[in-house]
Amino acid sequence: MVDLNRRGFIRSLFSIGSIGAASSSEAQVQARGKSAFVWCDLHNGHVGFPTGLDAPAIRPGSIAKLIAAAALVEDGFNTNLQFECTGTYKVGGNVGGKELSEVHCQFAHGSLDLRRALAYSCNCFFAQATRALTTRAFLTKARALGLSSPVAGRSSGLFPGAESESKPSLPYVLGLAADFKPNCLQLMRLAGLIAIGPGERLPVLHSSENFELKDKEKPLAVALTRKSAELLRSGMRLSVQEGTAAKLDPQNKMQIAAKTGTTDHGKKFQSQIIGFFPYDKPRNAFCLFSPAGTSVDAAVPEASNLILSTSW
Ligand SMILES: [Zn+2]
User: Which of 1, 93, 183, 230 gives 55 a disulfide partner, CB atoms 3.0 to 4.6 angstroms apart?
Assistant: First the structure.
């Protein structure tokens, strides 16, 4: 399945990547060339840093589709509605200039609904489904899910200011906007919130090595409805069963639910994966950042090695 042209082809998926040119902080992370893995216990809030204390903050790529999907469902979006993916979708209209004229998928996904679009991370579906979603609505949901708030004693990654609310939403939906760079711990917390669902509170996250609860951090209420939480959970589960994270746990040892994200970085890629397990009774959430490679080539196999070789 991997052929010599694959890299060139994957690059073409990021024809809108010029919107989010790599920043110097991304370059620094890349220069260190180190993956980062963080995990947390959803019952007591302990955070583990097995690969070191780095918590890189980069553009989230397709992990942002979780936020867009929640915003859609809570706005009454019909989760049975299907859109057709032919591999390319012309966005049209004045939605961010020529960089944003088309989005691509690596494969033509055919007809899919929101849940499958999450599992397969279909750009063409999300470009069509979010035509009426405003950046304001996206950012409001992102804020409610902790993506502008401190976490485990660390300050938030970059979050867009009010001036961005009038911009087109698609770069945010696809996680490629230059001014939205949540850190790994915030993305891990997002997975934790989805895992535990509405009506619950996630404990304040804190390093298990350095127990220091920072002021101003409070337990986060889960800002999802029953319907949106269930859609995100089942989409993330399907991603591991047959979608973009299918190689994470092929034997289903840990019952993981996950979402991947890849972003272009100069001539290379970097990728992340967030998730939680076990699916039925979530106990742990995690985020892995890989500085080199797409999620299929890097974040998924690296997370698989780490998770399956650990005694939980
Ligand atoms: Zn697609």
Answer: 183
